[in-house]
Amino acid sequence: MKIAHRLAVLMASVLVFLLLVGYFALEGMYHSNSALNRVYQDRVVPLQQIKSVSDAYAVSIVDTAHKVRDGAITRSQALDSISKARREVQTQWQGYLATGLGPDEKAMADKFQQLQTKADATITQLETILKSEEKAALELPEFAARTMYPALDPLQEVLGALIQLQLDGAKKEYTDAEEDFELTMVGALSLLAAAVAVSMFLGYRVARSILRQLGAEPSEASALAQSVARGDLTVPIRLHPRDTDSVMAQLKRMQESLVDVVSSVHVGAETVSSASEQIAEGNADLSARTEGQASSLEQTAAAMEEFNSSVRQNADNTREADRLAHDAYEIADKGGAVVAKVVTTMKDIHQSSARIADIIGVIDGIAFQTNILALNAAVEAARAGEQGRGFAVVASEVRTLAQRSASAAREIKDLITASVDRVAEGSTLVDQAGTTMQEVVKSIRQVNELMRQISTANSEQSQGIHQINEAVTHLDQGTQQNAALVEEMAAAASALNSKAHDLLATVNVFKLPSHRAPEPSGAAMHHLPAPQ
């Protein structure tokens, strides 16, 4: 098992115990909170409700009767106070019954309700007495002493017993919570003690296993590593019997491997020196081909720049067309609004003309009736003989005026009818114009959207061309850099040859066992292929 895993097991064990301690603490807190909630919901709230019922009977009813008897308040105020008290009793008692009642509470509550029936009847009698000024003055003192007290006092006794029952229940909840707290403390302290013991045991086992895995003291392993760092590979390493997997055993294997590596490096350095010469020759050919590619890329970059300029000009023209299409859309939209207003105005004119025609019809009817009345007046004047002659003349004139009015009304009605027809025709044409304008606005909106899409496409195309241009430019720059790198590689190949000789000198720093000294390499170098 890895050291990290062992330490993880140690930490996990401690963490498990801490979690258990935390669990016990949280469990204890949960039980305490539950107990407090039960005390509040099942004891404190019912206690407050019972107290409110008791106060309503003792203060709002009995004390009110005393105040009326002593003249401190009026009978109407007393009746209001008693009515509010009865409502308060009803509300609070129903709320108390809705809580969780034990068997003892249920029995006392039933007893209270039996007594409450008699008390309610007594309170009703009290309200009846208070409604009469004479009865209130004469009967109230005797009623309070002989009837009201005997009816209400038993209620107070039952309510007092219920209050004491709530207090006893709260005390029991407190005692249970205290016992749970003591159990939780004992469990948490036991777990803490177990956590300390297990941690010490696991710490000892982990330290012992780490020392066994190292194979020696850390200072010995450090001294050996320092010797290897100085290049001394001749230091002997002593291992314990049957020790094959410790760090010291692996260091011994590393020492042996380093001896082999250093021996191989001598041979490799000579090989690198020969290969560097071939790399220099290949770089010369690669440099010539890279220069030709750089010239071709410069021409391509110039052509892409011209194409990019043309695309940008098309994009600018498209944006201008998009702007003009948007302006045309706004103008057409305003024209549509104006046509809509004209349609509304024509409808209003049509309605007004129809009303005028109706009014002219009324005038024509009045003229017709006036003509009939004038005709009747002329007949009556003729019957009157000489005495009705003047009246006949007036009737004749009135009839003439009525006929002229009827004739004028008919002419006006004909004109109004023609006007209404023309207005209706105009309204129809304006409706058609409005519909046409809406279609025009819709078409311009579509054109505007198409122009916006074209503009977006041109922008994207311009960005794409710009990216291609940048890519070609980067390729051109890369090719030029490659040309420079080829020259640098030529210099590096020369430096590599020099470094190979330096590497041989550096490897000679290591002290190797006499039986593992490197032999000069006589192998022929294979020819490296020229770079493409």
Q: Which features characterize this protein?
A:
Four Helix Bundle (Hemerythrin (Met), subunit A); mainly alpha; 532 residues; Helix Hairpins
CATH class of the largest domain: Mainly Alpha
Low-confidence stretches: 522-528
Gyration radius, rounded: 58 Å
- Helix/strand structural class: mainly alpha
Report on the biggest sheet. Answer: none
Question: How far is it from the N-terminal to the C-terminal residue, by CA?
Answer: 51 Å
The overall average pLDDT, rounded, is 76
H-E order: HHHHHHH
Helical stretch tally: 7
The CATH superfamily name of the largest domain is Methyl-accepting chemotaxis protein
Strand content: under 5%
Count of distinct structural domains: 2
Number of strands: 0
**CATH fold category name of the largest domain:** Helix Hairpins
**Could you say what the CATH architecture of the largest domain is?**
Orthogonal Bundle
Net shape: flat
Helix residue percentage:
over 70%
Folded structure, characterized:
With 532 residues, this protein is mostly helical. The chain folds into two domains: 3-210, Up-down Bundle (Four Helix Bundle (Hemerythrin (Met), subunit A)), CATH 1.20.120.1730; 255-513, Methyl-accepting chemotaxis protein (Helix Hairpins). The protein contains seven helices and no strands. The longest helix has 138 residues, at 247-384. It is flat. The two termini are 51 Å apart.
Give the structure's gist in a few sentences.
The chain has 532 residues and is mainly alpha-helical. Helix content is 89%, strand content 0%.
